[in-house]
Structure formats: structure tokens, C-alpha cells
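Suppose a colleague, Dr. K., hands you the sequence of a protein chain of 231 amino acids and asks what its three-dimensional shape might be. Before reaching for any lab equipment, you can write down a predicted structure in C-alpha cell form. Begin with the sequence itself:
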Amino acid sequence: MFLSVQGEMIRSNIVENVKGVPVHLEMQFVDTTTCKPATSLLIDVWSCDPAGKYSGVSAAGQGGLATSYLRGVQPTNQDGVVEFDTLFPGHYQGRATHEHVITHTGATVLPNGSYTGGHISHLSQLFFDQSLINAVEALDPYNKNTIAKTSNAQDGFTGYSATAAYDPFPEYILLGSSLSQGIFAWIELGINPSSDYTQYAPPASFWRAGGGVNNPNFNMGIVGSAPPTHG
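The predicted structure, expressed as C-alpha cells, is then:
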């Protein structure tokens, strides 16, 4: 489910009080029209928790509008790089383990730590090696998730995300002697900042002071199917 939240907080540590395998995620964005770092973008990431629940949305079985765990936004620096401290995602029915990524071009950072405006110039998902997923899923609290697992090969979204020109699988190393100590993952993504895929990513809700509110015009039919391109 592409359950984005518009206006969520600009922050690098998005773990909050959720338990799981720590991930330090570093992404570099390159402007495909200039082959230079894509600066002045806002990068929006989110994923479900080990139990398969998303924060910030009110749909049945999700975390609710008052939650914001594993969601955050960061501006790209002069090298087109952003860094997030998050957790390895869990899984839910019908989907392989994944991390959502969208880029906002022309957005304005607000004094309250949020943002407004701009358009979505890239939307996609990051996937992970199946062997890594299997190893994480064997650990607590991931092994308490009884929802049937979907492999990368079975996932219906990898077809648009993975192409000869686009590799959505980050490189990674362990941060210690065991997987539970965490993972450092990194990836380079080429995007065209002038592309506009906003129509394919209507937010499920809006983050406001004190919590979220539902988007009355949210269309699950749009976000529940793959867009014609990864962006």
C-alpha cells in the first residue's frame, strides 16, 4: 500500500519507540539531466513496523492518525545525499519487504519542521536481498508477525521497480558481529527533478500540529496499483 502522509516531519531519526533491527540508510540522488548531485530536494521515506503496520493512517489494522513512527523527510545536501536512522521494515499481506521513497521538488521547509508545496518528481520502493529478509524475519519481534510472507519473486511491484536501468536493491553491511546490532544500507538513485508523478501518490492523510487528519479525496485505486514508471 502506498500510504503516504503529506507534510510529515523533517527529521533523520524516525525510529521513535519501535523495536526492531536498526538500519542507517544513506541515499544519494543524481539528476539524470545533468549527471550532477540532485540538491534542494526533500526526500520522503516510510515503511511498516515489524508487525506490518504503517503509522500515520487510520485504515483498519494500521497505527492510527496520531502515530508517526518510521516516517520522515530530509533535504538533500550539496552531494545529493540524505541519511535516515530507521528500522528494517516488516511485511504485510501480499507484499515483499520494502521501503517507500518519494522526492519532492520545489517544496518549502516551514518553521514548524514540516514542509509545503512542490511536486513529486520520483516515487518508488527499495527492496532487500531475500537472504537478508529471511534472516531478519527469524529475529524478535519480526518472528511474531504471523502474516503470510511474500517473496521478492512473488511481489507484484518489483516489475516496475527493478529494470535494466534502475536497481532498487541497496548495498549493505552489518554494523556489528550480529544482525541485531544493525545494518548500514546505501544506494544511488538517478532521477529527473522536473518529472511530475504527483497524481500517482495522493496522500492517505495530512500531518498537522497535534496529529494527522484523513484525506477525504484519497483514492486507494490509484495507490494500490503500480504507476507506469518508478519515476
